[in-house]
Write a sequence for this structure.
């Protein structure tokens, strides 16, 4: 069975975006060669990408652009080449190269996709999608990059919509020179299954 991994950049207080949808705070850290190398390596690490509609439209407007190819050529090449899925109730088509549109209920569509043969599935951003899939128990690993900033009441909490509790087990952590921190957790039920 394919694994479903959520890769999220969140604030210290667990927000994935401001209440107005802005996430420019994710790029306000000073340049860090180690962080840049991690981003490039992560983009080339395999897997197939999953997005919600909002994140998909933002990504599809940037990565195929000449500016992306000039500023981040390795990441742009990978983002454009990798197979992608977009979950949406409103889109009629997905025009970005190698993208499959998953219309309807994202939970049932991703349950089916996980059972099919193929590479692991990695959700980038898409906080509302991550929350719904996490609530349904479909996420096998949370890879969270903590950006040392607090949004408080101006932020959208990644786990704010959860009804119950979730126990997690730390599987990896890494600190970067720019203050970012990668922490990877598996839900305890998933950790016990291995």
């Amino acid at each position: 069975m394919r694994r479903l991994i959520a890769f999220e950049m969140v604030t210290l207080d667990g927000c994935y975006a401001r209440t107005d949808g802005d996430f420019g705070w994710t790029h306000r850290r000073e340049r860090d060669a180690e962080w840049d190398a991690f981003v490039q390596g992560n983009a080339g690490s395999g897997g197939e990408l999953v997005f919600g509609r909002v994140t998909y439209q933002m990504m599809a407007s940037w990565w195929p652009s000449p500016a992306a190819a000039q500023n981040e050529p390795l990441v742009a090449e990978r983002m454009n080449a990798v197979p992608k899925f977009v979950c949406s109730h409103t889109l009629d088509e997905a025009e970005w190269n190698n993208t499959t549109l998953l219309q309807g209920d994202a939970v049932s569509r991703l349950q089916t996709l996980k059972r099919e043969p193929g590479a692991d599935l990695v959700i980038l951003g898409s906080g509302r999608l991550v929350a719904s899939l996490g609530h349904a128990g479909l996420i096998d690993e949370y890879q969270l990059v903590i950006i040392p900033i607090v949004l408080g009441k101006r932020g959208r909490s990644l786990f704010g919509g959860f009804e119950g509790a979730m126990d997690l087990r730390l599987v990896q952590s890494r600190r970067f020179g720019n203050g970012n921190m990668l922490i990877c957790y598996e839900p305890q039920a998933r950790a016990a299954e291995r």
In short: Residues 33-43 form the longest helix (11 residues). The chain has one domain: 4-193. The chain has a mean pLDDT of 88.
